[in-house]
Design a protein that fits this description.
The chain is built from 14 helices and 12 strands. Helices cover 37% and strands 15% of the residues.
Length: 380
């Protein structure tokens, strides 16, 4: 089946009890058991729930995977992966990565005796040099948050295989509609389903998707015993959102390209980073490994921090907000939002300057979005 068909049909058969086309929300904590020896079926919703199971099956199908596990947030999914590591283990993480991931490595990893090194994974030699004898995991993100850099996923996955590393990638910006990293050799895909997969800014959730049979039991333990599971109601909302992922992502991509081209030519814009622009440093790589360039744009304005605040306050359609990936357009300020946990030196090392904004381009009419940006830029 094609992607659009899988998104609407997999895990979503009509309810056998009533014939309802839309799977119901199983808002229950308990399930009746047939005997004291019953092991199969559902028993307790922390362990498994039919609504959550339907979404896990559908999401796995979209990533062409065997397994999908849903968590209460994207960070809960990431912490589940941290739970696979043991004291003394080492992780190599891409330098350009979501601020919440950095906070996990900074605050939670040391409590478990896990060390982390950041490397410029755009450079394969730098990636190889960062690997130590005790390295167990290679953490990727592509496109990166917030600068939209694109990593060579197959090459990094091969590097991980050579060193027997668990290769993980955050695929939130791209979604399974635009790229499928498992097919490029990655072991585990992470999603914040809060973003594009849900798509309507009304849920909080995370996911791990993978093929390896040996990872299922330890990751299921992290989900079921750890207990940070997605609720039945939010699972149902996620399933509804994923039905339209393909059409939404096409609109996000089309709108973002038009917006990026407008901004690239504007005299008050210093730099635009969008994988769909020919001058993006990894444009050709993005063309090879992605089926579209996504809805995220990094923009450096020709102004100072006060000017950026003026710009953000002047926008009428781009709401100033921390998240991304909804149908509505948003503007974020990484220095005080997604990457607020970094010191100024750490931000500058990663290129997160005081004049940087991150645009999550929604699916409104692109002419209206461009007009909104134009009037706000006039305030600089």
């Amino acid at each position: 089946m094609h992607f659009e068909t899988r998104a609407i049909r997999v895990g979503q058969e009509p309810d056998p009890a009533t014939g309802a086309i839309i799977p119901p929300i199983y808002a229950t904590s308990n399930f009746q058991r047939h005997s004291i020896d019953q092991q199969e079926g559902y028993s307790y919703s922390r362990v498994s729930n039919p609504t959550r199971a339907a979404v896990e099956q559908c999401l796995a199908a979209l990533e062409n995977a065997r397994y999908g596990l849903l968590f209460a947030s994207g960070m809960a999914a990431e912490v589940a992966l941290l739970g696979l590591l043991r004291p003394g283990d080492h992780v190599v993480c891409t330098r350009d990565v979501y601020g919440g991931t950095i906070s996990m490595w900074k605050h939670l990893a040391p409590q478990r005796g896990v060390s982390v090194s950041y490397a410029n994974l755009l450079d394969l030699d730098a990636a190889a040099a960062a690997i130590q004898p005790n390295t167990r995991m290679l953490w990727l993100e592509s496109p990166t948050n917030p600068l939209t850099y694109v990593l060579d996923i197959p090459a990094l996955a091969e590097l991980g295989r050579q060193h027997n590393l668990l290769v993980v990638i955050d695929n939130t910006f791209a979604t399974p509609y635009l790229q499928n990293p498992l097919e490029m050799g990655v072991d585990v895909v992470v999603h914040s389903v809060t973003k594009y997969l849900g798509g309507h800014s009304d849920i909080l959730g995370g996911a791990l998707v993978f093929n390896r049979d040996d990872l299922y039991e330890p990751l299921w333990d992290q989900q079921a015993i750890g207990g940070a599971v997605l609720s039945p109601f939010e699972s149902w909302l996620l399933l509804r959102g994923m039905k339209t992922l393909a059409v939404r992502m096409r609109a996000h991509c089309e709108n973002a390209l038009r917006v990026a081209r407008f901004l690239a030519e504007h005299p008050k814009v210093a730099r635009v980073l969008y994988p769909g622009l020919p001058d993006h440093p990894q444009h050709e790589l993005a063309k090879r490994q992605m089926r579209g360039f996504g809805g995220m744009i990094a923009v450096s304005l020709k102004t100072d921090r006060a000017g950026v605040d003026r710009f953000c306050q002047s926008l009428r359609l781009f709401s100033l907000a921390s998240s991304l990936g909804g149908v509505e357009s948003l503007v974020g300020y990484p220095a005080t939002m997604s990457h607020e946990g970094l010191t100024e030196a750490e931000r500058l090392e990663r290129g997160i300057t005081d004049n940087l904004v991150r645009l999550s381009v929604g699916i409104e009419h692109p002419d209206d979005l461009i007009a909104d940006l134009a009037q706000a830029l006039e305030r600089l």
